[in-house]
Amino acid sequence: MAKVLIVVGDAAEALDTMYPLFRVQEDGHDAVVAGPEKRVYSLVMHEIPPGWDVTREGPSYHLASQIAFRDVREEEYGGLFLTGGRAPEYLRYDEHLLRIVRHFFTTQKPVAVVCHGAEIVAAAGVIQGKRMATVPKCRLDIELCGAVFVNEGCVRDGNMVSGRTWHDNALYMREFVRMLRDWEESNRSSTEAVLSAQTRAHA
């Protein structure tokens, strides 16, 4: 089963993060949590209260990262998940994370993005011409970087699937899990073909 890298930082949104973490584990994947450093991060809860026009932030769970971005060997992973919340506002400046993101798009491995996670792929310069969903307040971020904003709960474009907020978790995560399965099957078939060719060559 593919290892899936789950990107977090302080002020990552709890539901944006925890549901996808458990969902990929439920399907048998090794979910590896990564942050700027290997330490415990404080997640937050984001909601728009009745009568408010903006998001209110409150404290939530804590989540430990298992590895720092700089120590990630991206070739070992078959999937990448970029969470939302306020964390992407500063994570997008981490050159190690941007290196990881670009690898996944260069190799066309599955990537899932929700909410403000769109700011990370925008900063990485990998969404030019792509259709994607994000929270409407990040529409300008992705459009300035050449993407097309789609106000839907699950938008698939090539190796990337995206959702607007945690309200869309059940929509885009269903597609992400399917993408991981397809990638594993393709990778398995390629490996078997190489081994078969090597066997014939030594026969």
Largest sheet, in brief, is: 7 strands, mixed
Overall spatial form: globular
Care to count the β-strands?
A: 11
Q: What is the terminal-to-terminal distance?
A: 30 Å
Radius of gyration: 17 Å
Can you give me a brief rundown of this structure?
By secondary structure, the chain is an alpha/beta fold. Helices cover 37% and strands 24% of the residues. The protein is globular and about 75 Å long.
Explain how this protein is built.
This protein has 203 residues and is α/β, with parallel strands linked by helices. It has one domain (3-201): Rossmann fold (3-Layer(aba) Sandwich), CATH 3.40.50. 37% of the residues lie in helices and 24% in strands. The chain has helices at residues 14-26, 88-91, 95-106, 118-124, 139-144, 169-201; strands at residues 3-7, 30-35, 40-47, 56-64, 67-68, 79-82, 111-114, 131-132, 148-149, 155-157, 160-163. It has a seven-stranded mixed sheet, with helices on both faces. A two-stranded antiparallel ribbon has the order 3-4. It has a two-stranded parallel sheet with strand order 8-9. Strand 10 and strand 11 form a beta hairpin. The chain is globular, with a radius of gyration of 17 Å.
How are the SSEs placed, and which strands pair?
Blueprint: E1 3-7, H1 14-26, E2 30-35, E3 40-47, E4 56-64, E5 67-68, E6 79-82, H2 88-91, H3 95-106, E7 111-114, H4 118-124, E8 131-132, H5 139-144, E9 148-149, E10 155-157, E11 160-163, H6 169-201
Parallel strand pairs: 1-2, 1-6, 2-5, 6-7, 7-11, 8-9
Antiparallel strand pairs: 3-4, 10-11
Helix pairs in contact: 3-4
